[in-house]
Design goal:
Shape: elongated
Number of domains: 2
Helix content: 40-55%
Structural class: alpha/beta
Number of strands: 10
Mean pLDDT: 93
Largest sheet: 5 strands, parallel
Low-confidence stretches: 504-508
Radius of gyration: 27 Å
CATH architecture of the largest domain: 3-Layer(aba) Sandwich
CATH class of the largest domain: Alpha Beta
Strand order of the largest sheet: 2-3-1-4-5
Order of helices and strands: HEHEHEHHEHHHEHHHHEHEHEHHEHHHEH
Strand content: 5-15%
Distance between the termini: 30 Å
Length: 508
């Protein structure tokens, strides 16, 4: 593919000057429209060293409002970045609604430099293709426009530019020994680039190859292709605006409930909520499991293994008390408890997974989520805060998100705290009666209780669609709080022990 690119394309300077001014103004107008329509735009520039990426970016942003864009220069991961999954540093830099993010190099470092230089084993860079395509598809499905450029020059042209830079007393620092070494491996990088383009040029995120020998031609093509993509995205938004999220009507709810009950709710019907633990045994087991978790916390730190614990469950199921016992003997420097509510601010202007990528722990640390990304398929689904297409799509997106975490070696323990409807009512009334617990009960809790049957369907769907071999759900029988606390702690400890017992090849 790349060997067939016509690198002789060029543009007369006079023609360029005439077209460039118009293209620059066109892009500035489109930035305003992008902002007004709340369209996130993500531009990726990849290509050969000295192909002109920096120059293309400088010209691209020349007339844009600097308050509406960010340029991210990507290098090898820092020590802090290396302690998280490789997509983490890119997820947290994705643009919000109406913003433009421009990446000078990107997540493709994994399948180019890491591959050719042997910094990542074959298993790692091969699985990166699936993660990259999933990442870009999630963003596109959420409304992000992705524009990806590969700036292409020949080996001879790259050599000529390196020598020219070395003759300049101002620019010679830009050419390093590593650059020359990569130049000598041009054929290997060419093969990697060919495969990258083939495997990651998709309908939602196609690659644009830019013939970059002539700077005028290169600049104008980047301008025009970016503008064309923006105009197409705005036109598509106008033709088919995003459907407003709305809760299904009463009849649709009843139909959904009947269909789901027929196939899924047996999962919850079979839970034995009569399981109990005597108080004396509970205290003995609690001390034992807390000591076990403390040892495992230090083992995870030594082995640089991240741990993510997800708590979901019915209102008043005892999540808070359960979490308190889990962390009771842990070193507070090694964990964080993250309560999750409705998204606000930047959290509300990005893909719904963005705020969770921002909160995942680094290797060696533990994060406990009191509610989580499963809100998309629970409360957002039932209350109509997202469309049916969005919550149905979320099952697959969540599985891919969790797969990325486990590929990195993160331990995932997912707990659903299950109580009966009668036990929930008893706890609600207790909260009403006791002054020190009254703050826990809100009007929203009573309103959610009225939707118990519909939530029950959503819970069964959630567990059925997202309990995977690498991130299984554990249903915790929680009518008895002591039993639930011990079972949760054992589940977390066993998940960590299994993970520490695996012989995992290093990612880098």
């Amino acid at each position: 593919m790349l060997e067939m690119v016509d690198l002789g394309k060029s543009l007369d300077k006079a023609d360029y000057e005439k077209s460039y001014r118009a293209a620059r103004d066109r892009l500035a107008r489109l930035q305003r429209r992008i902002y007004e329509e709340h369209v996130p735009v993500l531009v990726v520039l990849e290509g050969w060293d000295a192909a002109g990426k920096g120059d293309a970016i400088e010209k691209l942003v020349g007339r844009l409002d600097p308050r509406g864009y960010r340029v991210h220069a990507i290098h090898a991961p820092t020590p802090e970045e290396a302690l998280r999954p490789f997509l983490w540093r890119f997820w947290i830099r994705t643009p919000g609604h109406g913003e433009i993010a421009i990446f000078d190099r990107s997540w493709y470092h994994r399948v180019l430099v890491d591959r050719v230089e042997g910094d990542a084993p074959r298993r790692v860079w091969q699985q990166a293709y699936a993660e990259i395509n999933a990442f870009e598809r999630m963003l596109a499905d959420d409304g992000t426009l992705l524009v990806k450029f590969w700036l292409h020059i020949s080996a001879e042209e790259q050599k000529r530019r390196f020598k020219k830079l070395e003759r300049s007393k101002f620019d010679r620092w830009r050419v390093t020994k590593e650059d020359w070494r990569a130049h000598r491996r041009y054929p290997a990088y060419l093969d990697a680039a060919e495969e990258m383009l083939e495997r990651t040029s998709t309908a939602v995120a196609p690659w644009v190859v830019v013939e970059a020998t002539d700077k005028y031609y290169r600049r104008l093509k980047v301008f025009e292709e970016t503008a064309r993509a923006m105009e197409a995205a705005l036109a598509a938004r106008k033709r088919a605006p995003l459907a407003p999220a709305h809760a299904p009507g009463p009849e649709a709810r009843k139909a959904e409930l009947r269909a789901a009950q027929r196939f899924h709710t047996a999962l919850l019907d079979d839970v034995d909520l009569g399981r109990r633990m005597p108080v004396r045994r509970y205290h003995d087991e609690l001390k034992k499991e807390q000591a076990r978790l403390r040892k495992l916390e230090f083992a995870c730190y030594e082995r640089r293994r991240a741990v993510v614990v997800v708590y979901e469950g019915w209102d008043a199921a005892g999540k808070g008390g359960n979490i308190k016992r889990v962390i009771g003997a842990l070193d507070p420097r090694g964990y964080a408890v993250l309560p999750i509510g409705a998204p606000h601010g930047d959290d509300a202007t990005h893909h719904y997974l963005w705020r969770f990528w921002n909160r995942i722990p680094k290797a060696g640390h533990l994060a406990i989520f009191d509610r989580s990304w499963y809100g998309r398929v629970l409360v957002e689904r039932v209350e109509g805060f997202c469309t049916e297409a969005e919550w149905r799509r979320a099952f697959h997106e969540i599985n891919e998100f969790e797969l990325s975490l486990t590929h990195f070696g993160t331990v995932l323990a997912k707990l659903w705290l299950h109580i009966s409807k009668e036990e929930q009512l008893r706890r609600f009334r207790e909260r009403q009666r006791l002054a020190f617990k009254r703050y826990k009960l809100t009007d929203e809790d009573w309103r959610n209780r009225k939707e118990w049957d519909l939530y029950r369907v959503a819970v069964a769907d959630m567990i059925g669609n997202t309990s995977t071999s690498y991130a299984p759900w554990t249903i915790v029988e929680a009518n008895d709080k002591g039993f639930a606390r011990v079972k949760a702690m054992r589940t977390i400890a066993e998940a960590i022990e299994r993970s520490l017992g695996e012989k995992r090849p290093p990612e880098r």
